[in-house]
Amino acid sequence: MKTAQFVALEKRLLSDFPRFVIKGNLMFVAPVKYALRGFYFEPSGFDKEAFYVNVFFTVLCVPTEHLSFTFCDRIRTPNGSDGWHANQGSLETSLKLAMQSQNMPILSEIESSRNLAELVALMVGNSKDPNRSEALAYALALAGETVAAIDGLDQLLTFLDSEIGWQQEIIARALLLRSNLAEKPREAKEQLEEWEAETVRNLGLERFCAV
Question: What's the mean pLDDT in 84-111?
Answer without folding.
Answer: 89
